[in-house]
Design brief:
The radius of gyration is 48 Å and the shape is elongated. The protein starts with a helix and ends with a helix. Helix 2 crosses helix 3 and helix 5 runs antiparallel to helix 6. It has helices spanning 3-24, 27-37, 39-47, 103-109, 112-130, 134-176, 186-204, 207-231. It is mostly helical. The chain is built from eight helices and no strands.
């Protein structure tokens, strides 16, 4: 038997004797002994000295071989996850990286949409003549009216932009000639818009319907005013 084994056996015997003596003591005496010796010495006396495990270093027979690493490496409590960049949504309408908004270029690039709408109206009108289902007829009429309103609104907007462009052009030309530019008032612009609207309705043959619609609207307003006056 080696010297190391003898020392280990003697230490085990001493610990057994200490444990027997401690087992015969009362809880109060044990508590006093613990306070006198200290927690660390008390535990060493009861359970033996704490074993310190030395880090084993694996040697390589050849320097070109990969180094061996112990598989008993403790796993960390908090794992470091891969940091992913936060996704930030971008709206191209308000993002400078997507360029600036040019209304003229936008209209020029998407002018084909009006042509598609006109073709859709033609196809819907053909379908309207063939269909006999009242629900389908109602839906087709609604779609035709909606597309026609969109085209009409687009045309009106283009006319207004054209008028603004012509006014600016007249002002610039007057300044070039050395004349004082004439700026139209809002009331004058409103009258001119009404005149152009009247001429447009007259040429399209919708003036009569427009006047009837305005009359009905005015009659409804008068009825509501009379009803509110009677209630008061």
């Amino acid at each position: 038997m080696s010297d190391e084994e003898d020392t280990l056996l003697n230490e085990d015997k001493d610990q057994d004797e200490i444990r027997k003596e401690l087992s015969q003591m009362s809880f109060e005496d044990l508590q006093k002994l613990k306070e006198k010796l200290g927690c660390k010495i008390y535990k060493e006396a009861l359970f033996g000295p704490r074993k310190v495990y030395k880090k084993t270093e694996f040697k390589r027979e050849n320097k070109n071989r990969p180094r061996e690493i112990s598989s008993k490496k403790p796993v960390p409590r908090f794992r470091k996850l891969v940091q992913v960049k936060k996704f930030i949504p971008r709206d191209p309408r308000f993002d400078s990286l997507c360029g600036t908004y040019d209304p003229k270029r936008f209209k020029r690039n998407y002018s084909f949409i009006n042509e598609i709408k006109e073709n859709d109206i033609k196809e819907l009108k053909k379908e309207l003549t063939k269909s006999k289902d009242p629900k389908k007829i109602k839906k087709i009429k609604y779609l035709i009216q909606r597309l026609e309103n969109q085209l009409r609104e687009e045309k009106r907007r283009n006319l207004e932009e054209q008028k603004v462009y012509e006014e600016k052009k007249e002002i610039v030309e007057a300044i070039r000639r050395g004349e004082k530019p004439v700026f139209k008032k809002k009331s004058e612009k409103r009258i001119l818009n009404l005149i152009s609207q009247y001429e447009e309705l007259k040429n399209s043959g919708k003036l009569k319907k427009h006047i009837q619609r305005l009359r009905k609207k005015n009659q409804q307003k008068k009825r509501l005013q009379l009803a509110s006056a009677d209630s008061e």
